[in-house]
Amino acid sequence: MSEITYAASGRPPSTVISLRPSRWKKVYPAIEGYLYLAPTLIALSIFIFLPVYNSFILSLNRIAPFGNQKIYVGFDNFARLFADPEYWNSIKVTFLFVLGTVPTGIFLAVLLAIALSYPLRHLSGLHRLMIFVPVVISSAIAGVLFRWLYNPVVGYFNYWISLVGLEGQDWLTSKQWALYAVILATIWKEFGFNVIIALAGVQNIDNSYYDAAKVDGANLWQRIRHITLPLLTPTLFFLLIINVIQNMEAFGQIHVLTEGGPGQATTNLVYSIYFDAFVGTPQRGIASAQAYILALIVIAVSFVQYRGLGKRVHYQ
């Protein structure tokens, strides 16, 4: 702390001017930072934190279908869900849906990304744009498109499989085939995103690795197996996490194609939440409990992936 005493003419000898910064100058940077954060914090509070809190309160209550009367029941809503076979069916459908979409979608995307980097690297930008187009199409439009393709009378899908001697099916009203139909539509919808991310990962690999492998006499398959795939693991890990979370929360394509049917054959966890909250007699307490269970399942699955596969990722 330094103080300078000025005894210049016109001032009393005892006049002291302190050069210590004022308290306001110390506090102002912190206040300024919070002011910059305020719009984001307000938006998060209104659209995320407050709804999450209200949803938890609703999950602990039984709410009258018409009106705002609440009866506190604690964790009874959760207990009722775990005792409900239909809820366990929605969990099974969710995991079957994820198992059907994620591995197949990532495998096909990586296959095409490698092809676009090597034998098809001269493919025009227009063709690459066409691969990405399904990503920007809404789930509703994609659902309507596939409803037309799956139509048992005039749909092209039955016509295409008839060309190879297979019998057509009523895809969206068959308990046996409805989930497969939704899985196929979802793979097509997400394919462009997976290809673009995988292609970026493949093209990010340094060519010096391939040059060294060629000198050692490695063929194309050996270069892909021992160089491309190991160095692509960070991208594959990212795609796995994103695809699993996205497909565990799938709703749009299921709603448009099957509305959870036939006979709950395509009712996943998200559609079960929607049905209990907004269709028929609303059960908002049950729906809120389901939402929290889904959040815990997503967190648990992501944690298992990080713990189980994170150590196998090879970073350059």
List keywords for this structure.
two-stranded antiparallel sheet, 4 strands, 316 residues, mainly alpha, 2 domains, two-stranded antiparallel ribbon, single chain, 67% helix, 13 helices, MetI-like fold, disordered N terminus
Mean pLDDT: 86
- Report how far the terminal alpha carbons are from each other: 51 Å
CATH homologous superfamily heading of the largest domain: MetI-like
List low-confidence stretches: 1-9, 15-19
Q: What's the arrangement of strands in the largest beta sheet?
A: 1-2
Give a short synopsis of this structure.
It is built from 13 helices and four strands.
Structure description:
This protein has 316 residues and is mainly alpha-helical. The protein has 2 domains: 3-49, no CATH class; 77-312, MetI-like fold. The chain has 13 helices and 4 strands. Strand 3 (61-63) and strand 4 form a beta hairpin. The protein is globular and about 75 Å long.
Record the SSE blueprint:
Elements: E1 3-5, E2 16-18, H1 23-59, E3 61-63, E4 70-72, H2 76-82, H3 85-117, H4 125-136, H5 139-149, H6 156-162, H7 178-203, H8 207-215, H9 220-231, H10 233-248, H11 252-257, H12 269-278, H13 284-309
Helix pairs in contact: 1-13, 2-13, 3-7, 3-10, 4-7, 7-10, 10-13, 12-13
